[in-house]
Amino acid sequence: MIRIFACLAMFALLLGCSADQSMQPPKDLGAFRLGHNVVVASKMKKGPISRDATEQEWVDVLTRAVDSRFGRYQGNQLYHMGISVEGYMLAPPGVPLIYNPRSALIINVTVWDDAAAAKLNEKPRQFTIYEDTTGESFAVGSGNVRTKEEQLQGLAENAMDAVEDWMAEQHAEKGWFAPRPGAATTATVPRLSDSSAAAGATASSDGTAPAAAETTGAPTQAPDAATASAVTGG
What we know:
6 strands
């Protein structure tokens, strides 16, 4: 955890301008379709200079972001995504032009191939994410112009940008998500927007991923410890 804090602290005062966060067109992810969307934050650490955010707040905002970004892919092979929040720093109000910290988030990501019952990345991929900076936030500081909720949402969206880019790279370079015999399935996992999810519909799968493919209930419900550990790589 010392390394996480050091990384967050190093960039606490980092300022810069970033591209717009607006949704980009889907990338080439082959036959990818989102299965279970598991986010955990039980091990997260707060940076030395930060607003408070609860585990549930991080789980909620990242679960929604994954559903929104990756739920749009309509391939015929099922893949589960696990995200573990490792550390964060939400910039508090500062002194304009003197002390303007920038919000940051560190996550670990694991992608699980349902049909193969195996992780695509044996070691979780770690991402360090920073919030976008506008002219206003540059001048007076993120903590002075954005609420905590806006900072959480912005970091979640930027995290999806980074994860989506990485997954597209893995597809192009290593063949992740490529169509293959016997991997196609008609199984689906309820998304947050599904009315059936609210009613606790059962998620099914043709694969044998440990617990993940057999988990029942809506994605908003926390999976059991074994499922969360298997999918997130924790």
